# Entry
Amino acid sequence: MARITLDGIAHSYDQDLSYALKPINHEWTQGRSYALLGPSGCGKTTLLNIISGLVFPSQGRLLFDGKDVTNLPTEQRNIAQVFQFPVVYDTMTVAENLAFPLKNRGLGRAAIRTRVSEIADLLGLTSDLHRRARRLTADAKQKISLGRGLVRSDVAAVLFDEPLTVIDPSLKWELRSKLKAVHRALDVLMIYVTHDQVEALTFADEVVVMKDGRILQIATPTQLFEQPEHTFVGYFIGSPGMNLVDAEIDGAEARVGEQTVRLSARYNKPPAGSSVRLGFRPDYTTLVAGGDMKVRVQRIEDLGRRRLAKVSLGAQDIFAVVPHGQSVPGDAAGIAIKPERLFVYVNDERVAGEPL
Amino acid sequence: MIEKPINNRAWLLVLPVLAFVLFSALLPMMTVVNYSLQDSMGANNFFWNGDAWFRDVLNPSTDIGARFFDALGRNLSFSFAALLIEVPLGIAIALCLPRGGWAVGPCLVLIALPMLIPWNVVGTIWQIFARADIGLFGAAVNGLGIPYNDTQNPVSAWITIVIIDVWHWTPLVILLSYAGLRAIPDAFYQAARIDAASRWAVFVNIELPKLQKVLVIAVLLRFMQTFMIYTEPFVVTGGGPGSATTFLSIDLVKIALGQVDLGNAAAMSLIYNLITITLCWIFYTIMTQLDRRRDA
# Structure
């Protein structure tokens, strides 16, 4: 029913002097949920607004099911969007709010009533239908905004622009599960913009990590965690983020300071002058006696479920997990990492080696 | 639980304000109250007259009562006409103003200009401007074949006074509405586009409800000012022709200073004042309560 294709989409707010969004080629498929994740100002909202037609891209084509909609105005695209701050029509009741997009599109009264009650049911708004919208809580208002998008049976995609920002923390989880339930029930394409990795990773089938107007990686939450393609992805996702240490690569070995560690693949020599770093998740780094590399323990944090050690590897600080029931080794401290958990990043991009 | 310190001596801090209000409003007012309850045969001899002045003013069959109710009717008609034109016109112009960019500043300054001109200067400008023989406006209208003379024809006089007020004070409504419109987040307009709302639907369902608070202020200010109108008719028409533009304030001055009828003038000004306050209260209550009732 709906497939959204970005064909070389790029956007500049200042006549191509700088790009808020660098050229992107990607295809969003029906029934999946995507999250656009990145720090503020990375271009994720711009991308969202291009899809909904609130911003027209300075380059490239946007296709819905293969049909070019690049220059089509918002109201002619089958898009619903939920904004950061709840938008409700103050003077209307909840039911009138939900009926508004249908009324504007000239639907019959009976059809509107059935559709509104369906959606109200789905969102749990039925008991509030005849209340005025503006006295409701922020999360109920946000549900109304969502509902106004969903009542249209032709809607191809629902876009969310940080929809949980103003929601009370205790209700965030509830609203998020509602979104997931809606997604399962209606089988629509959902694109969700956020700068909160937990929100992105729990909501989406696939996460698009963006920085400075560029897409760094599009992958499932697991892939992002297990195999980040970019140092920023490794660092931004996970808590704490990926350990990144300067290293020299020599075939299937990496030298970190004075120490050498074995890799799971053989790498070509990186070009001179490039930054070479070794990345490994703290979660897969264990503090042991001996180990693959010697470290000096700075402090141990007890996080309840696990213990985390901040250690120095040469002159660089990294994190490692301290297994339960294991005493912290003193002078003989080291870290153990499986070679397949070590990744090589040249100029921040992951490079693949030849398997040994 | 945190115990909050309670110290009623804080009320002493209100004293300077009370003293100020006392001297700026209450004491001058008391002299008026004084006149309204007494009569004088001259030579600064006053004697108690009870509520006789008030009864006269409020009785339409007396001479002074008839004058009072005629003028009150004119005042209400004038305020009604001015509000009816200024509020919709102000909102309409505010909607047309640019939302951003270099043009905003010049536009706002140009619009605000009439408000910077003092009342009597506005009156003087229009007295000449509206003259049927040499005034640009008056002569032009007559030139178009429309009979117009603001000193001889009551309809012309009324139209002139209303136009002056619209010209002078619509900018206030424009500025307030513009500020109100700017405060509406873009997301509302974007959502409306996604909902395929027409321009009219956006105005009725988004802009007007969001403007409600500033419009309460605009209506109250404009009502108070139009209801107290004095300078423009005083300078331009002198309350005429006949008594066609003799508003309460003009009549009050005639009675108090022209006829030195202090008792009637004092009673009339107190009633006038009370009416203004009451009408403002009614406006305010209706406009704020209406909304609350719809919620219930």
Observations:
- The mean pLDDT of chain B is 87.
- The radius of gyration of chain B is 24 Å.
- The longest helix of chain B spans residues 63-96.
